[in-house]
Amino acid sequence: MTEVKRNTFIITGIGILGIILTIYFFKESDKTLPNYATVIGTICSLIGLAIAYVNIVALKKASILMTSEIKNTLQKVNQLNSVSEISKAIKTNQEIQQYLRSNKIELAHLRTLDLKYMLLHFNSDPNLAELTVSDTYKRLVIEFGIDLNSINDNLINPKRKVDFFKIVNNLEELSTFLTQFETKLKTIKI
Length: 190
Prior knowledge:
Elements: H1 3-24, H2 33-101, H3 105-122, H4 129-132, H5 135-156, H6 164-187
């Protein structure tokens, strides 16, 4: 039996007992139908108010509990979304490396633009604040921006020499850093 039901039964029992005792102790001259109706109506009103109060208190407790559960669930969903975004960035990074190894510079350039957007998006994700304030992350993003410019320059002027080996190494370092942070984020218990 829930606390609300138990309290409701107790209040109702006290109310019925109050009605019986009040009517029992009436003087003979007061034992009229209007007096009975007044006593019963008054005590029933008090019972109703007490039951309403008990229910309001129970609803308030349930509301607080539900709010807490919603907050925890939202944090978990946001954490999973952040992990998903990092995983997507790692996969895109791997695709860029593969395109560069296959000398598909145009495709690599398109995917670097996607990765650039993802890295910029990480700055607005509160779950990734620890990642984006890291000096290593900032350095890797700057190197990524330089590498993106090099790839773009190569597309505009194919005679310009670009060190794709260095770009792939930088991308691999970025991928490793993101993978380590992804693993760390997965282990955080909310």
